[in-house]
Write a structure and sequence with these properties.
It contains 16 helices and nine strands. The protein has a single domain, classed as 2-enoyl-CoA Hydratase, Chain A, domain 1 (Alpha-Beta Complex). The mean pLDDT is 96. By secondary structure, it is an alpha/beta fold.
Amino acid sequence: MNDVVLRTERGLGRITLNRPRALNALTPEMVRRMDAALAEWEADDSVRAILIDGAGERGLCAGGDIRGIYEHAKAGQDGPKTFWREEYLLNHRISRFPKPYVALMDGIVMGGGVGVSAHGSVRVVTDRSTVCMPEVGIGFLPDVGGTYLLSRAPGELGTHAALTAARLTAADAIHFGLADHYVPAAKLPELVEALLEADDLDAVVRAHAEAPPASQLAQERRWIDPCYAADTVEEIVSRLRTSGEPAGEAAAKELLDKSPTSVKVTLKALRTAKVLDGLGECLDLEYRIACVLLTGHDLVEGIRAAIIDKDRNPLWSPDRIEDVDRADVERCFAWLGADELGLSG
């Protein structure tokens, strides 16, 4: 069985992620095949647009194949660096693709799934959509352009989502700028058929779209913005705990359950990404950080607890925010020299 089904149909280049039992998690081979197909379709005048979806009804994509990353990281191997390089280059290609790129973000869309959808030009969420960048929970950071997307969300909503791994509804995703249109899942077959016949794909999506429910997180900005505007993680936690909001206190608990090192690195990455020029520079930044986190303790331990043993009890090192060495955070942002991803500029 092909892990990704690539074909052309009535002028559409179609990508279907096809690992439904693994929630369509991305493997290195899937990334390579998608990138090659997009390069070919970009040059093919008979292909007028791209449509990406996921097999099964559970979701578009749950992210990268982190079990494979675990095995390489545990053995001290560099395989994940190659995967991230190719994945980030694919994300960048999607963001610059000259033809309409329609992403059906139905069901679960996490991590790498955000990378192959939210950088597209026409992004559709449904009543079944859950969008999330949960990487701080496994000792990593929101990558695949996550720092770019979340740092540009309204107010401090992106900081909240990144540091707590908050799950976003379809309405939240649209408000955050991660999606454009809300189409009920039951209408997706009808939408796909219409897209196969249409010249103006954006108009077709708008015709099928409905007004989404209100974003709950947008209504929480009264406490999110002042709490997460702080310069340090310690001050953010303090403000959340004293906000007088039960949701703020719950957010503090969620944040403190995550890798202390990853939370501190992620906050600095978001603040840095916010003033960078574009997605390419943010992907370069994420690649530097990813290469360092690969060699640390928390990534292997986080994946072990979440995916391998599934005990949900990671033993972080250090295990308190206050004990994270500033030098260890700064080390994640160091220039890689000849190993740079090289998308800046």
